[in-house]
């Protein structure tokens, strides 16, 4: 008798859950997109995708050079390696600022997830105020390299 009551309860529970779920399904809203909007969106997505690919390639190439300069400076702190690290840092800062500014023209809300994520990373990757005047990136990089070198030398 207990088995029948338990089975009946389970069947009733499943039926109730199915009925509740069926009643809460929202009606689909019709969205009409005209052909020009689709073409413009597709063109913007294609342009943004190409921009992200170019940005990744530029950052990867410059990162190799910058990483070597920073590594040399971290393992052999001299005036020469300080200068090389400062120069590499300035180039990287200029590129990051340039790409972040260029990425502003893309609407990430209409982009595919990966493209939108990469554009957001480009925009938020600058952790200090972006140097905008001539020579500011070099000056900032020299200051940060000098601070790092002073710490590394233990002075």
Textual characterization of the structure:
Helix 3 (79-103) crosses helix 4 and helix 3 (79-103) crosses helix 5. It is elongated, with a radius of gyration of 28 Å. It has five helices and no strands. The model is unreliable at 1-9 and 11-25 (pLDDT under 50). It is mostly helical and 155 residues long. The protein has one domain (36-153). The protein has helices spanning 2-23, 35-75, 79-103, 113-124, 136-153. Helices cover 76% and strands 0% of the residues.
Net shape = elongated
Number of helices: 5
Beta-strand content estimate: under 5%
Main β sheet profile: none
Helix/strand-derived class? mainly alpha
Total discrete domains: 1
Q: What percent of the residues sit in helical stretches (DSSP H or I)?
A: over 70%
Q: Please provide the count of β strands.
A: 0
Distance between the termini: 86 Å
What is the helix/strand order? HHHHH
Task: Using the CA coordinates, give the radius of gyration.
Answer: 28 Å
Look at the structure and give the mean pLDDT: 79
Could you list the spans in which at least 5 consecutive residues all have pLDDT below 50?
1-9, 11-25
């Amino acid at each position: 008798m207990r088995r029948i009551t338990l089975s009946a309860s389970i069947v009733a529970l499943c039926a109730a859950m199915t009925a509740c779920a069926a009643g809460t399904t929202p009606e689909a809203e019709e969205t009409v997109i005209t052909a020009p909007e689709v073409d413009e969106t597709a063109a913007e997505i294609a342009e943004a995708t190409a921009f992200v690919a170019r940005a990744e390639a530029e950052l990867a190439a410059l990162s190799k050079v910058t990483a070597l300069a920073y590594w040399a400076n971290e393992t052999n702190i001299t005036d020469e390696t300080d200068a090389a690290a400062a120069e590499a840092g300035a180039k990287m800062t200029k590129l990051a600022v340039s790409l972040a500014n260029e990425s502003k023209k893309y609407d990430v809300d209409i982009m595919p997830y990966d493209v939108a994520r990469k554009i957001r990373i480009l925009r938020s990757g600058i952790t200090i105020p972006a140097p905008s005047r001539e020579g500011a990136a070099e000056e900032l990089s020299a200051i940060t390299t000098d601070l790092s070198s002073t710490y590394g030398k233990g002075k």
